[in-house]
Each structure stands twice: as structure tokens, then as C-alpha cells.
Amino acid sequence: MNKKGERHFIKGKDIWDSDFGELLIKKETVQKFAHKFRGNARIALGRICTKEDFVKKKKAILNQTLP
Questions:
Q1: Given a cut of 90, is residue 64 above it in pLDDT?
Q2: Does residue 27 contact residue 50 with C-beta atoms inside 8 Å?
Q3: Which end of the chain is more exposed for a tag (fewer CB within 10 A), N or C?
Q4: pTM of the shown model
Q5: Using an 8 Å Cβ cutoff, are 43 and 32 in contact?
Q6: SS3 sequence of the chain
Q7: By C-alpha distance, which of 5, 51, 49 is closest to 24?
Q8: 4, 5, 36, 44 from 11: Cα distances, Å
Q9: pLDDT at 3 (0 to 100)
């Protein structure tokens, strides 16, 4: 958007064809703005699981021996 609030689009480019790459989520940023979020309670409380947390937990679980 420009200063007047007008939106400018690129002709011939469709947003569905764009590659935005991997989204990086930082816990600190989520917790900083959590009080403004009205939706999922976990996000509103800042209780999220990032990709790094998920990979750590997955490795720990896969390294456990079965009884």
C-alpha cells in the first residue's frame, strides 16, 4: 500500500504462483503480540511449538527404547 492507502498490483503476476519460502516463527514475537490476538487460546497465551522445538521433541521420542 502507498501513503494514500491505494493498493498496487503487478500486472500478469498471480499471488498463487509466488513462492514465499519457509515461514520463520519466533516465540518472542508471538509472546510480544499475544495480547492483541483473538483466536486460538494457545497462540493468545504465547504457547506455540516452533519447528526447532518439534524436531528436538521428535528426536527425543525416536531415541527412546520400546519396552
A1: yes
A2: yes
A3: C
A4: 0.49
A5: no
A6: CCCCCCCCCCCCCCHHHCCCCCCCCCHHHHHHHHHHCCCCHHHHCCCCCCHHHHHHHHHHHHCCCCC
A7: 51
A8: 20, 19, 35, 38
A9: 59
